[in-house]
Design brief:
The complex is a heterodimer of chains A (about 425) and B (about 425). With about 425 residues, chain A is α+β, with helices and mostly antiparallel strands. Chain A contains 16 helices and eleven strands. Chain A starts with 9 loop residues before the first strand and ends with a strand. Chain B contains 16 helices and twelve strands. Chain B has two domains: about 210 residues, Cytochrome Bc1 Complex, Chain A, domain 1 (2-Layer Sandwich), CATH 3.30.830.10; about 190 residues, Cytochrome Bc1 Complex, Chain A, domain 1, CATH 3.30.830.10. In chain B, the strands form two sheets. In chain B, strands 1-2-3-7-4-6-5 form a seven-stranded mixed sheet, sandwiched between helices. Chain B has a five-stranded mixed sheet with strand order 8-12-9-11-10, sandwiched between helices. Chain B is globular and about 60 Å long. With about 425 residues, chain B is of the alpha+beta class. Chains A and B meet through helix 2, strand 5, helix 4, helix 10 and strand 9 of A and helix 2, strand 6, helix 4 and helix 12 of B.
């Protein structure tokens, strides 16, 4: 197997603007479909929080050709799956099946994206499921820490400050017509990306997609640029207290570099050193291992089209929250003040490039990599250039990216757990 | 060294009784190496509950050759992933690496099978990590309910205790107890090595012999003698906890993996709660066309329902769980679930439902064969409980199930006197 690249990924643009990418893999009799449309929570108003995600979910609940029960009966009968999920910038979709069922899967995918009927009773059912999920969230320390972190790290008017799935008040306000209207205004082929990876002939996959999506027309939302996100210059800390819980979840972080930022890969290396490498990098070593404070402690840099979060998360006993935060801040300070020594840097870079084959082992892994190359304009030869791009990153660049995005004395800190004793 | 070979797998046993399973897969330049020990919470008792899981953690705390932190760094430097997990019947460690680096995984596993340090300072630090892991689980209402429910379903067999163990044991367990547990169960005769990936079989067998062949055979491990007495009547647990959502869990005593009813029960589970519950480690399919989804979720009584039939060495349980929808009650959801179970007992399922369950299993097996890590896990999992051919024959065994079999196992296992019912009653409901 070679690394996926221009030699074995076929890219076609349909007349209506849909970009199709196909890579064959005949090692297993299955096929994966993935992709997105450029519509999401970005396009909803603050008082409608959750609208984009609710709309994406309700598409699977009935079309002019198939009722809800029929959609799932057909899919599950052949062990296939189709899913849709509303994100901030995009609405993503994914599907998986045995290769002989690809026509069915594509037909259902096109059906739900192009001919949804928004049945009244299904909207009601789904609303109840979302409300119950929101009630669970209100008592879930990890989810509450995440919600609170986003509120602290981003300005109120920024889409990243709000919950994708919404709030009880907003979900209760959304009507069936709101969902249908949101769909009509922004679901269309332009900017849509479909990736197919698996045991299918490329020409066959292209024909199948052209057949079900080729004559689709529709609109996109006009988007204003994302609001500016100012650098955090003070400590923004909030604790959500839930009596009866036994452990606290902590998120400490910052708005981070967008995926297309020139220093994004520097941030990936920096993040790997801080909270990924081996068993969770320096954070795993110091906060978990040496101090025994946490069951988990790691860091993540999201990237994405905008300044997605760069954050450290940890689960600790409530009595140890302060010590854990002190430990996390010390590691951030070290990233900012000391260059990573050469051996540690080389180890981390070797991990990032060396683990690429593992990430490309499954059809899902390859599909995700192709989606990213298309979405962020990285070029289809990106994976082949990847080792060189990582290879040239120096300790100075790693320190510089830490200084640019981190500050051990100014950050957003969300804590959710039992009240302190 | 004896060898048997079927469908690409080679099974052999070293002179120290280490079982070895090897399969070449050349679809990607990667390889996965797993070592499985036949020890888990099944081998524990009050006073040392959670010990197998803690021992697993200690195997990441160093040996003289690979001091703490060195092994995971070496694996990461080579582009690999590395982890361990503890379950009722087994503890397993794995690494997946670029294929030309796989020998490193064998060196590490052979070394820590016998040379782990169990440094007292490391044990002291890890105690708080282990306690923290348990406290994290306690934040989840479904864990809290399940723990109470399993304790009620099993009063003799260790399956009634979660692998995380009781808090009092985590607070008091000693270094000597941990080390003795390690010494008893970590030996070639109680282990299984599995390698799948882009290598030459003979070369891999030579590597296994080189790294594991000199480790001495150990004494036989103590047998698990606990036998859960038959259940004579329904049991109920009511857990009052924080939160605003109610959860229902019902478990039925169920056969072990090697008993003939297991496959019919797996089909029954797929029909009742969807294909995701057919395997402990697979899944990923939706279950919206399953009987229980239609009866509980489509009717707006619950917001989700799932089933689980976990393969185990000794008889375990078949579990069903549901999340009660905001404006409904536990009693309503329980009644609707019972009605659906009564239907499958009274009337036979349809041939179409049976065919669907089998096709779903076939698709899931095709998906799981995409990654060498997945294949190695499945092989090891099967061999631990039965024989690696259990995996290879899984579809054939499922296909042999008839609608009569499904009804028979429903009648036998889904009866009221065989169940334990659990309610999570939230304090803010």
């Amino acid at each position: 197997m070679s690394i996926p690249g221009p030699q074995d990924i076929v890219r076609r643009e349909l007349n209506n603007g849909i970009v199709v990418l196909v890579r064959e893999n005949h090692d297993s009799p299955s096929v994966v479909v993935g992709g997105y449309l450029p519509v999401g929570a970005y396009d909803e108003r603050l008082e409608q929080a959750g609208l984009a995600a609710f709309t994406a979910s309700v598409l699977m609940r009935g079309t002019t050709n198939r009722a809800f029960e029929q959609i799932y009966e057909e899919l599950e009968s052949v062990g296939a799956s189709v899913s849709l999920g509303g994100g901030t910038h995009t609405t993503g979709f994914g599907a998986k099946s045995l290769v002989e069922d690809l026509p069915l899967v594509l037909d259902i995918l096109a059906d739900v994206l192009r001919r949804p009927t928004f049945p009244h009773d299904e909207v009601g059912k789904l609303r109840g499921e979302i409300i119950t999920d929101l009630e669970e969230r209100a008592h879930d320390t990890r989810r509450l820490a995440s919600l609170t972190f986003h509120e602290l790290a981003y300005p109120k008017e920024h889409p990243y400050a709000h919950s994708l799935i919404g709030y009880t008040e907003t979900i209760n306000m959304l009507s069936r017509d709101d969902l249908a209207e949101f769909y009509t205004g922004g679901y269309g082929p332009h900017g849509m990306v479909i990736v197919v990876v698996g045991a299918v002939e490329t020409a066959d996959a292209l024909t199948q997609i052209e057949d079900v999506f080729g004559d689709w027309e529709g609109h996109n939302y006009e988007r204003a640029p994302l609001p500016e996100v100012p650098r955090i210059v003070e400590i923004r800390e909030r604790t959500v207290s839930i009596p009866g819980k036994t452990q606290s979840d902590i998120i400490l972080g910052y708005p981070g570099p967008p995926r297309a930022a020139p220093d994004f890969l520097d941030a990936v290396v920096c993040n790997t050193v801080l909270g990924v490498f081996g068993l969770m990098g320096r954070l795993g070593e110091k906060v978990r291992d040496e101090q025994g404070l946490a069951y988990y402690s790691f860091s993540r840099v999201d990237g994405g089209p905008g300044p997605g979060p760069w954050r450290i998360v940890a689960g600790v006993n409530t009595a140890n929250v302060e010590r854990a935060v002190t430990g996390i801040r010390a590691e951030i300070r070290r990233m900012c003040e000391e260059p990573v020594d050469e051996e540690e840097l080389e180890d981390n870079k070797a991990f990032i490039t060396g683990s690429l084959p593992l990430r490309l082992e499954t059809n899902e892994g390859v599909a995700q990599a192709i989606i990213n190359m298309e979405r962020y304009g990285l070029g289809l030869d990106y994976l082949q250039r990847y080792a060189d791009l990582i290879g040239e990153i120096t300790a100075e660049r790693v320190q510089a990216v830490a200084q640019r995005w981190f500050d051990p004395d100014a950050y957003a800190l969300a804590i959710a757990g039992p009240p302190a004793a | 060294m004896e060898k048997t070979m079927e469908m690409g797998f080679i099974k052999t046993r070293l002179s120290n009784r280490l079982t070895v399973l090897v399969k070449e897969v050349h679809t990607a330049p990667v390889a996965s190496f797993w070592i499985w020990y036949r020890v888990g919470s099944r081998n524990e008792h009050l006073g040392i509950t959670g010990i197998s899981h803690w021992v697993e953690h200690m195997l990441f705390k160093g040996t003289p050759t690979f001091p703490k932190g060195i092994a995971e760094k070496a694996i990461a430097r080579d582009g690999g992933v590395f982890n361990g997990m503890t379950w009722y019947d087994f503890t397993t460690y794995f690494a997946t690496l670029p294929a030309d680096r796989i020998e490193l995984a064998l060196r590490i596993e052979a070394d820590r099978m016998v040379n782990s340090l169990f440094d007292p300072d490391e044990i002291a630090t890890e105690r708080t990590v282990i306690i923290s892991e348990r406290q994290g689980a306690e934040n989840n209402p479904e864990f809290l309910l399940s723990e109470e429910l399993m304790a009620a379903a099993f009063r003799v067999h260790p399956y009634g205790t979660d692998t995380l163990g009781h808090m009092c044991d985590l607070e008091t367990m000693t270094r000597d107890q941990l080390h003795a547990h390690y010494h008893t169960y970590y030996a070639p005769n109680n282990a299984l090595a599995v390698a799948v990936g882009d290598f030459n079989t003979d070369e891999m067998l030579r590597l296994v012999e080189r790294h594991f062949g000199t480790i001495p055979d150990g004494p036989d491990v103590p047998p698990v003698t606990a036998v859960e007495p038959p259940q004579r009547g329904e049991r109920r647990v009511v857990f009052e906890g924080e939160g605003n959502v109610a959860y229902l869990q019902i478990v039925f005593r169920a056969p072990a993996i090697r008993e003939p009813d297991f496959f019919a029960l797996a089909v029954l589970d797929a029909i009742l709660s969807g294909a995701s519950g057919m395997t402990a480690l697979g899944g990923g399919l939706t279950n919206k066309s399953s009987r229980l989804y239609k009866a509980l979720v489509a009717t707006e009584l619950a917001t989700g329902v799932s089933g689980s039939l976990i393969p185990t060495a000794d008889p375990f349980v078949y579990s069903l769980s549901a999340i009660v929808r905001a404006e409904h009650t536990l009693a309503e959801v329980e009644e609707a679930m019972e009605a659906e179970l009564a239907r499958v007992v009274a009337e036979s399922v349809t041939p179409e439902e049976l065919a669907k369950a089998i096709k779903q299993a076939k698709a899931q097996f095709a998906y799981s064969s995409e990654s060498v890590t997945g294949q190695a896990m499945w092989m090891g999992f099967s061999e631990i409980f039965a024989d690696y051919t259990w995996f290879e024959n899984y579809i054939a065994n499922l296909s042999a199930v008839t609608v009569e079999d499904v009804q028979r196992v429903a009648q036998k296992h889904l009866k009221g006197s065989n169940r334990t019912v659990g309610w999570y009653v939230p304090n803010e409901h």
